[in-house]
Amino acid sequence: MNPEFERNLWLELTPRRVLQMVIVLGLIFLTLKVADPFDGRDRAAEFLFFAIVVIWGTREAAQSVVEEIRDRTWDFQRLSALTPFNMTWGELFGATSYIWLGGLICLAVMIAVQGSPVRPLNIFADLAIGLTAQSAALFASLLAVRRRQSITRLSVFQYQMFGIATAAAMWALWEPVANATMPIGISRVLWWNVTFDGRPFLAVSFALLLICLAAGCYRLMRLELQMQNRPLVWTGFIAIAAIYAAGFGRLPDSVNVAIPESEVALRLMAAALALLVVTYAAVLHEPKDRVLYRWLTEMAQKRRWTALLSRVQCWMIAYAATLLVGVFLLVRLQMMDANSLAHQQLIPLTIAVSGFLTRDLGIILYFALVPGQKRGDMPAIVALAALYGLGPQLLRSAGIDNPDFILPAFTGGWLGAAFAWAEAIGVWTLVFKRPFRTGVVSTRS
Amino acid sequence: MIDVDSLIYEYPAKRALDGVTLGVRAQTITAFVGPNGAGKTTLLRCLAALDTPYSGTVRIGGLDTREAPRQIHAQLGYLPDFFGLYDPLSVRRCLIFSARSHALAAGEASAAAERTAEQVGLSDRLDVPAAELSRGLRQRLAIGQAIVHTPKVLLLDEPAAGLDPTARRDLSDLLVTLKRRGMTLVVSSHILAELEDYCDEMMIIEDGRIAGGGALKVREEERATIRLQLASPNDALASFLRQQNGIEVLDVNDIAASFRFSGDVSARADLLRSLVGNGFHVITFAQEAQRLQDLYFAEVKKKGGVSA
After folding, report:
1. With an 8 Å Cβ cutoff, are A79 and B78 in contact?
2. Residue A4: what are its φ and ψ, rounded to 5°?
3. Does A83 lie at the interface with B, CB-CB under 8 angstroms?
4. pLDDT of residue B267
5. Topology of the domain covering B2-217
6. Mean pLDDT of chain A
7. Where along chain B do its domains lie?
8. To 10 degrees, what angle do helices A120-146 and A41-50 make?
9. How many angstroms away from the CA of A377 is the closest CA of chain B?
10. Distance between CA B96 and CA B113 in Å, rounded?
């Protein structure tokens, strides 16, 4: 047996705790049977399943590694001979083993009460939502561990909430489709010009999300165990995300949209949007390590590209991919009718969006590289909120009627594109003036 | 066994290790000493492949810490200065888990746990939860976890902190035993007295560098310093010692001597037999360690004075 899983079983599944769980759940279901003449035990079991597996389970998953760091046992773990795969699943399933005991009891009651026919897709979805929520919580906590954030109860709550939010989003997608309460047509999915039944499509999508999150945990665990991650897997992930999003690039025929007329352009826009989200998520969650940036700069100066690629950060790859898809989109838009609205508005908008993205990345790094900065990305988020939220208001109050050029807006036009890139160049000039490149003071006096 | 070349480790605003180059021979005990904040712990963590250096290389048993960190972890034992234990688990389970996580099979792990508990003096507490152990016993358990898989290299950061005198002596005996069994040990401490009993070499770390550029010999097995004492004065002692092969007399009078001896343990036994055979009433014949404190301050003095 995987030693990490076994250790967790020793800690989690003590005979007393197992007995407690069985007795408590048994009493709850017995009470429901006696008290409820309409026998709502299947809904109660489902509710309890999610309460235990999602709410409690995400907390256990979020705490698994974090607790080891707090209890100072993590260095022993990092020095073991366990593979990152064994460590990941040992932590994920081991730390939540007690939770799954309760969850599986609830699931068994659900199946028993529902009787035949058993709906396997529903059961799969319940299990997938639980597992994905726990994986998301572990993933969030591992990201924080990489950032060497201080561990507090509040931070564990944040990782738990990430897991719960993931489960809530999945549930919100699944519930209407599973119960067929939505109008026919919406419960069917048009993806890459193929119409799928909503339930299996969502089930496969959930499985894909679960695999991606589990792979993310595994990759972060590799880094914790001092192994290097080559950029290929992350590149593969963002390619999958872009292809998945691009599949929705054609709206159903019943929906009447005028721009852009090109299906390819729409798909490229969907892919670019997905990559944009991934880039922002990555840059906000990866450690902004001044020593690493100093090292990467040195490798670039020495033209040691292989070494540089070995430690390049995920947001950098996602940013490059976003720009690349943006270029393809520009080329496709350029091929369209010069008088079309798409041609006139989307080309400058695409250039503006890439400029604003570049600027925002610069702002996030600029604040993160302040010596002694301990507030994480909050100053950068406040600055971005001010730029996007207060900026237009300030310009309007200064008498400028159309301040859209400071936003990634359709009406920003070429002025917006030029403004975005001018800001980006200015911000990055400031970033490179930060002392991260020269700030090392030798301890030798 | 351990080779470090031009190692640089940087924190965002401080260079913690500044071009450290050192070598540690197999089956020796090497001490890293120096003031707090000198870089001892950072250096140990780089040796343990727990932290990635900015530049330079660390090789453990020929393996590069950047290229093969997990292979290195498998053959390494490490006791951090601040450590934790799985408090609800028994001593036996803590040791078994540590053994299993270092790739020992289930059957082997159980035997290794019992053997290690014996070595660290915990065999009578195998079924006691770690939470119920005293501070000294927890330290022993942590050391047990670090050695249960019989690593080739053992790194210990302040191992005697919090131990009572008896436990310190036991620790010292244990480390010497582990060395004799083939282990290479590196111990970091800023308490010189505790290192004196067992370390062979000392490296003074200061401002992220090795002061003096290398290791100072504390104890040389192949050229040991022997302290000799007689029960009664004998004028012939000096001339007898100077006639022997492989002896460099450091200090001698008619009742005591101190000399360097080039020879293995059997040659040392022969010399003792010869002394007794020639009528010297020997009451002390023991290998002498140089006082670490003397070595440390001599090195510091060379550098022009450093606060200790």
Report:
1. yes
2. -70, -40
3. yes
4. 86
5. Rossmann fold (3.40.50)
6. 85
7. 2-217, 223-287
8. 20
9. 17
10. 6
